[in-house]
Amino acid sequence: MILIADSGSTKTDWRLIDDSRKIHQGATQGFNPYFRTSDDLSSIIKNELLTQFTILNSESIINTFFYGAGCGAVSKKEIVYSAFKNEFPLATIEVNTDLLAASRATCGQHAGLVAILGTGANTCYYDGKQIAENISSLGYVLGDEGSGAHIGKTFIQAYLNKEMPENLALRFYERFKLSTDEILDAVYKQPYPNRFLASFSKFIYQNLKEQFIIDLVAGCFHQFFDKHICKYKKHNSVKLSCVGSVAYYYSNILRAVAADKGINIDTVIETPIAGLTLYHLGEQ
Q: How do the domains of the chain map onto residue ranges?
Protein backbone atom coordinates (compact mmCIF):
# COMPACT_ATOMS: atom_id res chain seq x y z
CA MET A 1 0.00 0.00 0.00
CA ILE A 2 1.03 3.59 -0.61
CA LEU A 3 0.12 6.41 1.81
CA ILE A 4 0.50 10.00 0.54
CA ALA A 5 0.09 13.20 2.54
CA ASP A 6 0.09 16.82 1.37
CA SER A 7 0.15 18.89 4.53
CA GLY A 8 -0.11 22.55 5.39
CA SER A 9 -0.42 24.15 8.79
CA THR A 10 -4.23 24.01 8.65
CA LYS A 11 -5.16 20.90 6.67
CA THR A 12 -3.63 17.64 5.45
CA ASP A 13 -4.96 15.86 2.35
CA TRP A 14 -4.35 12.10 2.39
CA ARG A 15 -4.55 9.44 -0.30
CA LEU A 16 -4.20 5.71 0.32
CA ILE A 17 -3.55 3.44 -2.65
CA ASP A 18 -4.38 -0.12 -1.61
CA ASP A 19 -2.94 -3.34 -3.04
CA SER A 20 -5.60 -3.41 -5.77
CA ARG A 21 -4.63 0.17 -6.74
CA LYS A 22 -7.94 1.53 -5.45
CA ILE A 23 -7.60 5.10 -4.18
CA HIS A 24 -9.03 6.11 -0.79
CA GLN A 25 -9.37 9.79 0.17
CA GLY A 26 -9.16 11.45 3.57
CA ALA A 27 -8.38 14.69 5.35
CA THR A 28 -7.13 15.62 8.82
CA GLN A 29 -5.91 18.72 10.57
CA GLY A 30 -2.65 20.12 9.30
CA PHE A 31 0.82 19.45 10.63
CA ASN A 32 3.82 21.75 10.51
CA PRO A 33 6.88 20.46 12.42
CA TYR A 34 7.90 24.04 13.25
CA PHE A 35 4.86 24.28 15.51
CA ARG A 36 4.00 20.68 16.41
CA THR A 37 5.74 17.65 17.94
CA SER A 38 6.01 13.99 16.96
CA ASP A 39 3.43 13.21 19.64
CA ASP A 40 1.02 15.65 18.00
CA LEU A 41 1.38 13.90 14.65
CA SER A 42 1.01 10.48 16.28
CA SER A 43 -2.25 11.69 17.81
CA ILE A 44 -3.50 12.90 14.41
CA ILE A 45 -2.64 9.52 12.87
CA LYS A 46 -4.38 7.56 15.63
CA ASN A 47 -7.46 9.71 16.17
CA GLU A 48 -8.11 11.08 12.68
CA LEU A 49 -6.31 9.14 9.97
CA LEU A 50 -6.91 5.57 11.14
CA THR A 51 -10.62 6.23 11.64
CA GLN A 52 -10.87 7.10 7.95
CA PHE A 53 -8.53 4.42 6.58
CA THR A 54 -9.63 1.38 8.58
CA ILE A 55 -7.48 -0.99 6.50
CA LEU A 56 -4.41 0.66 8.01
CA ASN A 57 -2.91 -0.64 11.26
CA SER A 58 0.45 -0.87 13.01
CA GLU A 59 1.30 -4.04 11.08
CA SER A 60 0.59 -2.51 7.67
CA ILE A 61 3.46 -2.61 5.22
CA ILE A 62 3.21 0.73 3.44
CA ASN A 63 5.31 3.15 1.48
CA THR A 64 4.64 6.50 3.11
CA PHE A 65 5.27 9.82 1.37
CA PHE A 66 4.71 12.92 3.52
CA TYR A 67 5.01 16.32 1.85
CA GLY A 68 4.60 19.38 3.99
CA ALA A 69 5.29 22.96 4.86
CA GLY A 70 8.25 23.26 7.24
CA CYS A 71 9.81 19.95 6.15
CA GLY A 72 13.00 21.35 4.65
CA ALA A 73 15.38 21.05 7.60
CA VAL A 74 16.67 17.62 8.62
CA SER A 75 15.60 18.16 12.25
CA LYS A 76 12.02 18.93 11.15
CA LYS A 77 11.90 15.93 8.84
CA GLU A 78 12.94 13.77 11.79
CA ILE A 79 9.90 14.92 13.79
CA VAL A 80 7.59 13.64 11.05
CA TYR A 81 9.63 10.49 10.43
CA SER A 82 9.59 9.52 14.12
CA ALA A 83 5.83 9.81 14.38
CA PHE A 84 5.23 7.55 11.37
CA LYS A 85 7.85 5.04 12.49
CA ASN A 86 6.15 4.80 15.89
CA GLU A 87 2.74 4.14 14.34
CA PHE A 88 3.86 2.05 11.34
CA PRO A 89 7.14 0.33 12.28
CA LEU A 90 7.20 -1.74 9.08
CA ALA A 91 6.69 1.21 6.76
CA THR A 92 9.16 2.81 4.39
CA ILE A 93 8.94 6.55 5.08
CA GLU A 94 9.93 9.54 2.96
CA VAL A 95 9.48 13.13 4.19
CA ASN A 96 9.71 15.96 1.68
CA THR A 97 8.89 19.64 1.21
CA ASP A 98 5.71 21.10 -0.22
CA LEU A 99 7.83 22.45 -3.09
CA LEU A 100 8.84 18.92 -4.13
CA ALA A 101 5.16 17.96 -3.88
CA ALA A 102 4.27 20.76 -6.30
CA SER A 103 7.10 19.69 -8.62
CA ARG A 104 6.19 16.02 -8.73
CA ALA A 105 2.48 16.79 -9.05
CA THR A 106 2.89 19.10 -12.03
CA CYS A 107 6.07 18.00 -13.80
CA GLY A 108 6.26 14.32 -12.95
CA GLN A 109 9.45 13.01 -14.54
CA HIS A 110 10.01 16.11 -16.69
CA ALA A 111 12.10 19.22 -16.02
CA GLY A 112 10.44 22.57 -15.45
CA LEU A 113 10.06 25.65 -13.31
CA VAL A 114 7.61 25.33 -10.44
CA ALA A 115 5.97 27.95 -8.25
CA ILE A 116 3.79 27.83 -5.17
CA LEU A 117 1.55 30.89 -4.89
CA GLY A 118 -0.67 30.71 -1.84
CA THR A 119 -0.43 32.65 1.41
CA GLY A 120 3.30 32.74 0.69
CA ALA A 121 5.41 32.11 -2.40
CA ASN A 122 8.18 29.71 -3.33
CA THR A 123 9.83 28.68 -6.60
CA CYS A 124 12.35 26.22 -7.97
CA TYR A 125 13.88 24.63 -11.03
CA TYR A 126 13.02 20.91 -10.99
CA ASP A 127 15.22 18.68 -13.16
CA GLY A 128 12.72 15.82 -13.41
CA LYS A 129 14.01 14.05 -10.30
CA GLN A 130 14.80 16.64 -7.68
CA ILE A 131 14.87 20.37 -6.94
CA ALA A 132 18.06 21.52 -8.64
CA GLU A 133 17.81 25.24 -7.88
CA ASN A 134 15.79 27.33 -5.44
CA ILE A 135 15.75 31.11 -5.20
CA SER A 136 14.66 32.17 -1.71
CA SER A 137 11.37 34.06 -1.55
CA LEU A 138 12.61 35.86 1.64
CA GLY A 139 9.23 35.65 3.41
CA TYR A 140 6.34 38.09 3.52
CA VAL A 141 8.31 41.01 5.03
CA LEU A 142 11.17 41.11 2.52
CA GLY A 143 9.66 39.21 -0.39
CA ASP A 144 6.96 36.65 -1.22
CA GLU A 145 6.07 38.69 -4.31
CA GLY A 146 2.95 37.37 -6.03
CA SER A 147 1.65 35.62 -2.92
CA GLY A 148 -1.65 36.23 -1.17
CA ALA A 149 0.16 38.09 1.61
CA HIS A 150 1.93 40.31 -0.93
CA ILE A 151 -1.25 41.08 -2.88
CA GLY A 152 -3.09 41.78 0.38
CA LYS A 153 -0.28 44.01 1.65
CA THR A 154 -0.23 45.98 -1.61
CA PHE A 155 -4.01 46.43 -1.43
CA ILE A 156 -3.94 47.55 2.21
CA GLN A 157 -1.15 50.04 1.47
CA ALA A 158 -3.27 51.57 -1.29
CA TYR A 159 -6.31 51.65 1.01
CA LEU A 160 -4.51 53.33 3.92
CA ASN A 161 -2.73 55.78 1.62
CA LYS A 162 -6.04 56.68 -0.10
CA GLU A 163 -4.68 55.58 -3.45
CA MET A 164 -7.69 53.57 -4.63
CA PRO A 165 -11.08 54.58 -6.06
CA GLU A 166 -13.46 55.86 -3.38
CA ASN A 167 -16.20 53.38 -4.25
CA LEU A 168 -13.79 50.46 -3.75
CA ALA A 169 -12.45 51.88 -0.47
CA LEU A 170 -16.03 52.31 0.79
CA ARG A 171 -16.91 48.76 -0.23
CA PHE A 172 -13.87 47.48 1.67
CA TYR A 173 -14.73 49.43 4.82
CA GLU A 174 -18.36 48.30 4.75
CA ARG A 175 -17.21 44.70 4.44
CA PHE A 176 -14.54 44.64 7.18
CA LYS A 177 -15.16 47.70 9.38
CA LEU A 178 -11.43 47.95 10.15
CA SER A 179 -9.87 51.15 11.43
CA THR A 180 -6.30 52.14 10.61
CA ASP A 181 -5.26 51.32 14.18
CA GLU A 182 -6.84 47.86 13.98
CA ILE A 183 -5.05 47.10 10.72
CA LEU A 184 -1.69 48.25 12.09
CA ASP A 185 -2.23 46.25 15.27
CA ALA A 186 -2.96 43.09 13.25
CA VAL A 187 0.13 43.62 11.11
CA TYR A 188 2.64 44.66 13.76
CA LYS A 189 1.45 43.16 17.04
CA GLN A 190 -0.74 40.11 16.42
CA PRO A 191 0.47 36.62 15.41
CA TYR A 192 0.42 35.49 11.76
CA PRO A 193 0.26 38.91 10.04
CA ASN A 194 0.93 37.15 6.74
CA ARG A 195 -2.34 35.25 7.10
CA PHE A 196 -4.14 38.47 8.02
CA LEU A 197 -2.87 40.17 4.86
CA ALA A 198 -3.63 37.14 2.69
CA SER A 199 -7.17 36.96 4.08
CA PHE A 200 -8.14 39.93 1.89
CA SER A 201 -7.45 37.95 -1.27
CA LYS A 202 -11.06 36.76 -1.42
CA PHE A 203 -12.38 40.35 -1.37
CA ILE A 204 -9.81 41.34 -4.00
CA TYR A 205 -10.88 38.45 -6.22
CA GLN A 206 -14.55 39.32 -5.80
CA ASN A 207 -13.79 42.81 -7.13
CA LEU A 208 -11.67 41.69 -10.03
CA LYS A 209 -13.84 43.59 -12.52
CA GLU A 210 -12.39 46.82 -11.17
CA GLN A 211 -9.52 48.01 -13.35
CA PHE A 212 -7.68 49.16 -10.24
CA ILE A 213 -7.72 45.59 -8.90
CA ILE A 214 -6.64 44.10 -12.22
CA ASP A 215 -3.70 46.49 -12.37
CA LEU A 216 -2.78 45.85 -8.71
CA VAL A 217 -2.72 42.05 -9.10
CA ALA A 218 -0.87 42.30 -12.41
CA GLY A 219 1.71 44.56 -10.77
CA CYS A 220 2.27 42.00 -8.01
CA PHE A 221 2.75 39.25 -10.60
CA HIS A 222 5.19 41.41 -12.58
CA GLN A 223 7.27 41.66 -9.40
CA PHE A 224 6.97 37.91 -8.89
CA PHE A 225 8.40 37.18 -12.34
CA ASP A 226 11.09 39.87 -12.16
CA LYS A 227 12.36 38.97 -8.70
CA HIS A 228 12.03 35.20 -8.95
CA ILE A 229 11.15 33.36 -12.15
CA CYS A 230 13.22 35.46 -14.55
CA LYS A 231 16.33 34.89 -12.44
CA TYR A 232 16.39 31.19 -13.34
CA LYS A 233 18.70 30.60 -16.30
CA LYS A 234 16.18 28.33 -18.03
CA HIS A 235 13.12 30.55 -17.57
CA ASN A 236 12.68 30.97 -21.33
CA SER A 237 13.47 27.36 -22.29
CA VAL A 238 11.25 25.31 -19.95
CA LYS A 239 7.61 25.62 -18.97
CA LEU A 240 6.38 27.00 -15.64
CA SER A 241 3.82 25.14 -13.52
CA CYS A 242 2.01 26.81 -10.62
CA VAL A 243 0.28 25.44 -7.54
CA GLY A 244 -1.82 27.25 -4.93
CA SER A 245 -5.01 29.21 -4.46
CA VAL A 246 -3.59 32.54 -5.67
CA ALA A 247 -2.17 31.00 -8.85
CA TYR A 248 -5.43 29.14 -9.46
CA TYR A 249 -7.95 31.93 -8.92
CA TYR A 250 -5.89 34.65 -10.59
CA SER A 251 -4.67 32.36 -13.37
CA ASN A 252 -5.89 34.59 -16.23
CA ILE A 253 -3.86 37.55 -15.00
CA LEU A 254 -0.91 35.30 -14.12
CA ARG A 255 -0.85 33.84 -17.63
CA ALA A 256 -1.14 37.27 -19.24
CA VAL A 257 1.82 38.63 -17.27
CA ALA A 258 3.83 35.48 -17.99
CA ALA A 259 3.19 35.89 -21.73
CA ASP A 260 4.38 39.49 -21.46
CA LYS A 261 7.63 38.17 -19.98
CA GLY A 262 8.01 35.51 -22.66
CA ILE A 263 7.34 32.69 -20.19
CA ASN A 264 5.20 29.68 -21.06
CA ILE A 265 2.87 28.55 -18.26
CA ASP A 266 1.84 24.91 -18.50
CA THR A 267 -0.17 23.64 -15.53
CA VAL A 268 -2.00 25.69 -12.90
CA ILE A 269 -3.63 23.72 -10.08
CA GLU A 270 -5.03 24.63 -6.68
CA THR A 271 -3.64 21.65 -4.74
CA PRO A 272 -1.07 18.98 -5.65
CA ILE A 273 -2.66 15.88 -4.13
CA ALA A 274 -4.23 14.51 -7.34
CA GLY A 275 -1.00 14.91 -9.29
CA LEU A 276 0.98 13.34 -6.45
CA THR A 277 -1.32 10.33 -6.51
CA LEU A 278 -0.72 9.87 -10.24
CA TYR A 279 3.01 10.32 -9.70
CA HIS A 280 3.18 7.56 -7.11
CA LEU A 281 0.98 5.32 -9.24
CA GLY A 282 3.62 5.71 -11.92
CA GLU A 283 1.20 7.49 -14.26
CA GLN A 284 2.73 10.98 -14.09
A: 2-90, 109-270
